[in-house]
Amino acid sequence: MNNSTNLRKPKRIRALTREFDGELIVYDDQTHKAHCLNKTAVMVWQECDGEATVRDITNNLKDKLQPDAEAVVQFALIKLDKARLLEKGEAPQAEGELWNRRDLLKRIRLVAIVAIPVVTTMLVPTPARAASCLPLLQSCTSSAQCCSAHCGLSGINLVCLP
Amino acid sequence: MEKLYRLVGAAGMCFRAFGVTIGIRVSERTTLEILRDRLPPGSRDREAGAVKRLYSFFLNRAPHRKGVRRFHTVYSDLQILARSENESDLYEEFERDVDSFVAATSTAALFIHAGVVAWNGKAIVIPGRSFTGKTTLVAEFLRAGATYYSDEFAVFDRNGYVHPFSRPLGVRLDGSGTQTKKAPCEFECRIGKEPLPLALVVVTEYRKSASWRPRSTSLGRGVLHLLGNSLSARANPSLALNILTRTNERARILRGVRGEAAEVVRSVQRILDGPARVTTPELRSLASDWGRDRHEQLD
Fold it and tell me: How many beta carbons lie within 10 A of that of residue B200, not counting itself?
């Protein structure tokens, strides 16, 4: 990792969080996405206070993320940045500039499975998207019934249209 | 609004479901009796007062004239919700809309789009979007002796317990998209009344000729799947997360594609009936999760 990366100060976004059995659910109300962070990702994300540099974070977690804290922190930051859980401008550089992805994966393979940071993301739907709906060309009486949200005329019948 | 009042001033009623108050006005008094059967489960009559949504039913009884179509209309507040020559279309649409509205605006409960059955006094929740095979799976559980809770929504109260929301099952026959309503008792089942703790979340999707090899996944990921099918989490994420934190911490989450529903039901029954009865392939499948998880994470 180069020096400029080490001196960056990643900052986590402000979001709603709840802990579930060691994992953290983070709800971002800007994007309406919910993220599930495993224990390692949580450790790194919580260190991202906008004050600590990447080097500080690595040093702080050195004992907990044996044997390769640097690779794990870097991998976690990339994952967190991809999930937009870090504020813009403070995220680490694009992964290509820092590590070759393959090299990073090689290094991270040596880390115990429990220590690999994982961020899983899911879009929280609008009520209409979440409810049961009709497929295309089924007869309908209102747009809310259709999966495509468009109930329109086809000949003389109202059907779900794309 | 006044015009609408004149059209539908014959009678009205007010009810409350899961903390949401709703009003109905009709142009014919008899319509109210038909609508009573279509109110959300657990609805209670209320005295007239402020409502969150007002439905107005106008049944057009003008004499038939050649070349003129006679439409009945239902309004949701001031917007036309449905317009049809067939009265029953209006009632269907009302039922669908009122359920969705209650689900999206309730502050007393969290609604997840899911099928729910009970086995040995514990709730099995099957979240998923339309056309993922939830109803088929619920029907198969009922045939195997499970208690029916819901085909549409898993309703979690503020203590994390799952409540019944028992509407008839919306079965899609012969691969058509249209749902045919079937009473749960056609499957020789019992209908649940008591709130139950969550025991199992089955995240699955039907795939032709797939076989059911479930993977046990973490509670956090299970919560993510529930949020991904929730109707009110966008509007009130804090309430949704608070409710989900109170669900049973020991609930298990199983994930995987499925083929025949009967295979899933047998497997889930064995898992819930006790570890001693879990067969070797299931144990092998669950034990190999670590390996597969690792593979997935690295890819």
Answer: 20
Is B220 an interface residue toward A (CB < 8 Å)?
yes
- For testing the chain B interface, which of A14, A16, A17, A18 should be mutated: the one with the most B CBs within 10 Å? A18
| Contact between B241 and A122 using a beta-carbon 8 Å cutoff | no
Query: What is the ipTM score, two decimals?
Result: 0.77
CB atoms closer than 10 angstroms to residue B112: 31
Task: Give helix then strand counts, H and E, for chain B.
Answer: 9, 17
Residue of B nearest to A75 (CA): B298
Among residues B177, B180, B141, the alpha carbon closest in space to that of A140 is found at B177
Q: Which two tokens stand for residue B90?
A: 């209006």
8 A C-beta contact, residue B126 and residue B138: yes
Per-residue pLDDT of chain B (299 residues; tens, 9 = 90+): 666 667 777 788 999 999 999 999 998 888 899 999 899 998 999 887 889 999 999 988 888 888 888 889 999 888 888 888 888 888 988 998 899 899 999 999 999 999 999 998 889 999 988 778 888 899 899 988 899 999 889 999 999 999 999 887 766 665 555 667 777 666 667 888 899 999 999 999 888 888 899 889 999 999 999 999 999 899 899 999 999 998 877 889 999 999 888 999 998 988 888 654 444 445 445 544 444 443 343 33
Q: At A146, phi and psi to the nearest 5?
A: -90, 145
Contact B203, B253 (CB under 8 A): yes
Taking CB atoms and an 8 Å limit, are A132 and B170 in contact across chains? yes
Would you say B77 and B65 are in contact if contact means Cβ atoms under 8 Å apart?
Answer: no
